[in-house]
Specification:
With about 400 residues, this protein is an alpha/beta fold. It has helices at about 35-45, 60-65, 85-95, 110-120, 145-150, 150-165, 170-180, 195-200, 215-225, 270-285, 300-310, 320-325; strands at about 10-15, 50-55, 80, 100-105, 125, 180-185, 225-235, 240-250, 255-265, 290-295, 335, 350-355, 370-375, 380-385. This is FkbH like protein.
Length: about 400
């Protein structure tokens, strides 16, 4: 059984006598109570995704959800006659959520038992608990950001994006260019900290350490001139992805210490992690410093280790770390890299803005990009010349 303190990212609903009153196939005039509707809307506003696992004929059940005015709230509905554990598993896999982040509600004890047996980390609730779900800690995020409120819409936009990709016949890089992707890397402001904290808590596959940074700690780091908290956001022609990454850096005279890099799994397919690392490596190259990155292995973050290794980080010892007395941690690998010049990404436009003045890049004639500096706003835009 999952730890109840772990936030629920997706609630999967049964329909008959759980979401609505009555049994659709028995000809009942099923009704959705105002109280249950309020639960659906409230969870959605908190950024908790919702789906359906119901034993019903798909088309009539979906039409009923549409008539009741709530179909838009449910992603990846599984309406059919297979085991509900398989339905819940497919939903979690499609969302790339760990089972510990998924909950299931059903009026039938046998259905809950079947899901609990096959998916022991999924939390199961009875229909009698529905109205109390918003009051439970696992359904009550510490903060609710604008990205949280827009999370369902972002996922729905991503499904449309994925469908277009499936129909695209050219190379993957051409499809990514067609999205008109823009990545922005900026210093975290007070308005960003809630989302930054959420990223450190919610990300698992693409989180280099699995460490949660609280709002208080993040504010202290933002106020510390020796540290930088950077937030990464993305958008494309389908709409905004919101804040999708956080980078926590301690900058010393001889090396920069990357204490945390975490990115949302929603942007893995865009190569976001590699773009961020290459940008940071290039910045360190300009500054003439080495890079040291913390990596703490978890059950879920093997992808992040691969990203670090692919970028060139290794466990080779270097005097730069010992010279500045970084305290050893038996649970943390200290990966090292001597930076080199990295080209701007060819599949997206990268914009850095609102960075400390010491981040201002020096002009380089060797870079094969067109750069534009706006001294007043301190904005640097880099676009590969072959995509102009």
């Amino acid at each position: 059984m999952a730890d109840q303190a772990v936030p629920v990212k997706c609630l999967v609903w049964d329909l008959d006598n759980t979401l609505w009153r009555g049994t659709l196939l028995e000809g009942d005039d099923v009704r959705l109570s105002d109280a249950v509707r309020e639960v659906i809307v409230m969870l959605d506003s908190r950024g908790i995704l919702q789906s359906v696992a119901s034993k019903n004929d798909h088309d009539p059940a979906w039409r009923k959800l549409e008539r009741l005015g709530v179909a838009e709230y449910f992603l990846l509905p599984e309406i059919g006659w297979g085991p509900k554990s398989e339905s819940v598993r497919r939903i979690a896999d499609e969302l790339r959520f760990a089972h510990t982040a998924v909950a299931f509600v059903d009026d039938q004890p046998a259905e809950r038992a079947e899901v609990a047996f096959h998916l022991p980390e999924v939390r199961c609730y009875s229909h009698e608990q529905v109205l109390g779900l918003p009051g439970l800690p696992e359904f009550t995020p510490a903060t609710v950001t604008e990205d949280s409120r827009q999370r369902r819409r972002m996922y729905q936009a991503n499904f449309r994006r994925t469908a277009e990709q499936s129909a695209f016949t050219g190379p993957d890089e051409d499809f990514l260019r067609s999205l008109e992707l823009v990545m922005r890397i900026s210093g975290a402001g007070a308005d960003d900290l809630a989302r930054v904290e959420e990223l450190t808590l919610r990300t698992s596959q693409m989180n280099a350490t699995g460490v949660h940074y609280s709002d208080t700690v993040l504010r202290e780091l933002c106020a510390d001139p020796a540290h930088d908290v950077l937030v990464i956001s993305m958008a494309d022609r389908f709409g905004p992805h919101g804040a999708v990454g956080v980078l926590l850096l301690a900058r010393n005279a001889g090396f920069w210490h990357l204490k945390l890099l975490a990115t949302s799994c929603r942007v893995v397919s865009f190569g976001a992690g590699a773009v961020i690392l290459n940008w940071l490596i290039d910045q360190a190259f300009e500054a003439g410093v080495h890079l040291v990155a913390d990596f703490r292995q978890t059950e879920r973050n093997r992808m992040m280790e691969i990203a670090y290794r692919f970028a060139g980080f290794a466990t080779d010892p270097c005097a730069c770390t010992s010279a500045y007395g970084i305290p050893p941690d038996p649970d943390v690998q200290r990966l090292h890299l001597v930076p080199d010049h990295r080209n701007a990404p060819s599949t997206m436009r990268l914009v850095s803005e609102g960075l400390p003045t010491s981040w201002t890049p020096r002009p380089r004639h060797s870079r094969r990009v067109s750069e534009r500096r706006d001294e007043e706003d301190h904005v640097v835009t880099s676009t590969p010349t072959d995509t102009l």
